[in-house]
Each structure stands twice: as structure tokens, then as C-alpha cells.
TrEMBL record:
UniProt source species: Microbacterium immunditiarum
InterPro entries: ArsR-like_HTH, GAF-like_dom_sf, HTH_MetabolicPath_Reg, Tscrpt_reg_IclR_N, WH-like_DNA-bd_sf, WH_DNA-bd_sf
PROSITE patterns, per the entry: HTH_ICLR
Gene3D superfamilies, per the entry: 3.30.450.40, Winged helix-like DNA-binding domain superfamily/Winged helix DNA-binding domain
Keyword DNA-binding part of the UniProt annotation: yes
Lineage of the species this protein comes from: Bacteria, Bacillati, Actinomycetota, Actinomycetes, Micrococcales
Coiled-coil ranges (or none): none
UniProt-recorded name of the protein: DNA-binding IclR family transcriptional regulator
Entry keyword annotation includes DNA-binding: yes
Pfam families per UniProt: HTH_IclR
GO BP terms, alphabetized: negative regulation of DNA-templated transcription
Keywords for the protein's UniProt record, in alphabetical order: DNA-binding, Transcription, Transcription regulation
Domain HTH iclR-type positions: 15-77
Length: 255
């Protein structure tokens, strides 16, 4: 059945439809939780019926899939296969460093870059993803990297080429003061239960040559092991020093 409910099978895309098909794929790629055909049509400024036909063709050929609840569309297997091929030929410069610290600690390790309005995720641990991505990106008090950001108050502009989220929560001054005091005492940030009741995280900053924080490396672990997490600080700091060199002179550090 087609997107608009008709039973007609969509025709294969012609040359004139390729540009629109690419625009549709870009819109879906930018919405990790899915996007409807109507929203795509509004975003690209094309007639809804034309977008419906294009989406139907992309679904049929495996480039898009419908969400199970029919609330929108996600990237399909054929796009992911192409991405895997590209990734195999273009391994990010930071990946070896992260693979090493993940292997050494056995815990979830994520890399983020700071900008003046929040933070952006550069490399989320693929085997142990963030438990609450939305809160991680919207409220700086809910995660250890957010605490580092509150202490460092970075001034870098928003990085190009990555999905940027801005803080939506402004914490009270007394909360920020407590975070500053804890960071000064420890030399790193930690947060327990902010994203998930059963997990805690700690973070170390990554600085540029002038000592300004450009990002953070954060380790997440179950609460049952959190009391032992500080033993991994040496590995995290070594990795942060290695990442520091990769972050110099790039609009998107560590890329």
C-alpha cells in the first residue's frame, strides 16, 4: 500500500526525480526518530503527491522503511549498507583512540564536542548507547559532560556538519555553584542517576593548546560498579591527551 493509502505500485524514479529523492533521504537522515511524508513535503517545498510517490519508491527499493507504528519513515537497509561501505574506507581519526579506551575499561565511552550553546555527540559507543539521548543533549545537569560544560563555559561556535542541539534547561545558580565546587575538588565531573536510575557517568575534559575545553570524554557504568569507575580515570585522561592533538585546527574537533 502506498503512503497515501492507495494500492498503486509506485513507478521507478526517473532522472528528474533523483534530486527530490536525495532531498527526501537528507530529511529522513536528519530525523533519527522518523519523519512523516507530509513533514518532508513541507521541508523540501515540493507537492505532497510528488513526495508521496518518491517516498513510496524509496520504501519499495529498501532505501526507506516505515516505523512500526506508521508514524514516519527511517533510513532503510540499503542506505545503511552504503554508509557501512563508506565508513570502511573513511575511518575517523579518533576511532583508534576510542577503541583502545573502550577495550581497556570494558565500559561505555562516548566522545562529545563542546560549543557555546551546548554539546554535540561525535562518537556514541555503538555497543552501549546513551540511555537517554534527549536529556543528555538538553539538560547540562543530567550528565557528567554537561557538568564539564557548565564549569568551562566554552565559547566555540556551533560545529558544521554535525547535528547540533542546544541546552533547553538553564540550571539554578546554586546548582551550578555546587557543580563547580565538586569539579574543583575532584578534577573531573561525575553524575549518578541523571540519565538512568541504574547508571552513573564521569567525564574528563579535552582541551586545546590554550587550555580551553573543546570537548569531553565520558565513561558510563552501572551504579553497582560506579564506586570503582575512578580507577579508569588514568585511561580516560591518556585518551583525552591523544584526542587533544586530533582536535587542533578543525571546525569539528576529532573528525
Amino acid at each position: 500500500m502506498s503512503v497515501d493509502g492507495s494500492a498503486a505500485s509506485p513507478a521507478r524514479l526517473g532522472e528528474k526525480g533523483l534530486g527530490l529523492a536525495l532531498e527526501v533521504l537528507e530529511q529522513v537522515a536528519g530525523h533519527h526518530h522518523g519523519i512523516t511524508a507530509a513533514d518532508i513535503a513541507r521541508a523540501v517545498g515540493a507537492p505532497r503527491a510528488t513526495v508521496y510517490r518518491t517516498v513510496n519508491a524509496l520504501v519499495r527499493d529498501g532505501y526507506l522503511v516505515r516505523r512500526p507504528d506508521f508514524s514516519g519513515f527511517l533510513l532503510g537497509a540499503r542506505v545503511l549498507e552504503l554508509a557501512a561501505i563508506v565508513d570502511a574506507h573513511r575511518r575517523p581519526a579518533h576511532r583508534d583512540v576510542l577503541d583502545g579506551v573502550r577495550s581497556a575499561t570494558g565500559e561505555a565511552v562516548h566522545l562529545v564536542v563542546f560549543h557555546r550553546s551546548g554539546l554535540a555527540i561525535v562518537d556514541e559507543d555503538p555497543t552501549q548507547p546513551l540511555s537517554d539521548r534527549a536529556s543528555f543533549l538538553s539538560d547540562p545537569t543530567r550528565s557528567a559532560p554537561g557538568h564539564v560544560w557548565l564549569v568551562e563555559q566554552p565559547t566555540r561556535p556551533e560545529p558544521p556538519g554535525v547535528m547540533v542541539e542546544r541546552w533547553r534547561v538553564t540550571p539554578p545558580s546554586e546548582v551550578v555553584s555546587a557543580i563547580h565546587a565538586a569539579y574543583a575538588a575532584r578534577g573531573y565531573a561525575e553524575q549518578v542517576g541523571g540519565l538512568s536510575a541504574g547508571r552513573g557517568c564521569l567525564a574528563v575534559s579535552i582541551t586545546d593548546d590554550d587550555g580551553h575545553a573543546i570537548g569531553a570524554l565520558t565513561l558510563s557504568t552501572p551504579v553497582s560498579r560506579f564506586s570503582l569507575a575512578a580507577r579508569h580515570l588514568g585511561a580516560l585522561r591518556d585518551a583525552a591527551r591523544s584526542l587533544r592533538a586530533l582536535g587542533q585546527g578543525h571546525p569539528v574537533p576529532f573528525s
